[in-house]
Amino acid sequence: MRAVCQRVSEARVTVDAETVAEIGAGLVVLLGIARDDTSADVSRLAGKVARLRIFEDAGGKFDRSLLDAGGSALVVSQFTLIADTRKGNRPSFTDAAPPAQAEPVYEEFCTALADHGIPVERGIFGARMAVRLVNDGPVTIVLD
Fold this sequence. Notes:
- The structure is a single chain.
- The radius of gyration is 15 Å and the shape is globular.
- It contains 3 helices and 8 strands.
- Helix 1 crosses helix 3.
- By secondary structure, it is of the alpha/beta class.
């Protein structure tokens, strides 16, 4: 499981020119799910995202989490994060979980993050989405 977390001042997801999810300040979490990911992985990563200290305190230091900052999360499933590019120029996605396996794990992650007290918005699993965001900083962290 891999999450690319981008600190944002705002973000939205559109499908067919219709906004399906939108947040103000918080995190966009692009989530890649691998074939061997478990509920333990979901729980660990959701906790890490909720407590990741990448929001500035009054002194300008990264010392506040999404929980501390009172921000929201916009979680978008992105199987391409599990790409293997070690051979050739075409990425291999054989390690990515197939949709029937990945969707319940994606939903479990969103629920686990919400259980930490984070307001969670979701993209549409499997849809062709446009993700628009204003990266604040920019700050982007990759979590495995």
